[in-house]
Amino acid sequence: MTCPLCDTLGGRLVYQGQAFRVIHADEAGFPAFYRVIWQSHVAEFSDLSAAERVQCMDAVTAVERALRHTLAPRKINLAALGNVVPHLHWHVIARFEGDSHFPAPVWAAAQRARDAAQEARVAVALPAAEAAMIDALRKLESNS
Question: What is the mean pLDDT of the chain?
Answer without folding.
Answer: 96
